[in-house]
Design brief:
This protein is of the alpha+beta class. Helix content is about 50%, strand content about 10%. The chain has one domain. The chain has a 4-stranded mixed sheet.
């Protein structure tokens, strides 16, 4: 199993970067078999794969909510991450709405998923999370990847699989919400990555919350 995951990782990275569509054509089971993305990530990165589930409820969720409440930007912990950053001065500065939707797009219950996929296929070619419900209750959660909606059991599971998809398919975080994924990468999953001033600030703020 590990040898197969390592083979896929090597194939994806050799001879230049491949598109998600190219990878899926070569390894269709990555999307057609539930759990395959997480399995490949875990085989390559070991116990790192459980970090989000181990630490989110125990440490991060309540602290992010408290920071969001102070900013009067309460939604729910996962959706609040893009909103509690001090983004600094950059040439590209997405709005809070743009950053949030690039990370988790919230749609009402009953949304036509096929139509949603058609509408976002060109505007959002990167992996992201689709949540159905409202800010108080999420009824369904999906990872949107290569024009497909991969349903997950919880919103946290969807974020977990979406994060791992960036690694498995070797694609960059979208710049609209790169800081959010980099926060999860370096602070939550404790993996090497870009730790900007905004991430260091949020890390310190979270540890200061009691």
């Amino acid at each position: 199993m590990k040898e197969t995951a390592l083979y896929r990782a090597k194939w994806i990275r050799q001879n230049g970067t491949k598109s998600i569509a190219e990878v899926v054509r070569e390894f269709p089971h990555l999307l057609s078999t539930p759990g395959m993305i997480s399995q490949d990530f875990d085989q390559v990165h070991g116990e790192t794969g459980m970090k989000l589930f181990e630490s989110w409820a125990a440490f991060f969720a309540a602290r992010i909510l408290r920071l969001a409440v102070k900013e009067e930007k309460f939604n729910q912990p996962l959706e609040d991450i893009p909103q509690v950053y001090r983004v600094g001065q950059k040439v590209f500065r997405p709005s809070i709405d743009e950053a949030s939707k690039a990370f988790i797009e919230l749609q009402p219950i009953g949304t036509n998923v096929v139509e949603f996929l058609r509408r976002t296929e060109l505007t959002k070619p990167f992996p992201f999370v689709l949540a159905m419900g409202n800010i108080r209750h999420i009824s369904q959660a999906f990872v949107i990847l290569n024009g497909q909606a991969l349903e997950q059991t919880t919103l946290l599971s969807a974020v977990d699989v979406c994060f791992k998809a960036f690694y498995v398919f070797d694609v960059n975080f979208p710049r609209q919400c790169a800081s959010t994924w980099e926060f999860l990468q370096t602070v939550v999953f404790q993996m090497e990555g870009n730790e900007s001033f905004a991430i260091r600030f949020l890390r310190c703020s979270l540890h200061a919350e009691e």
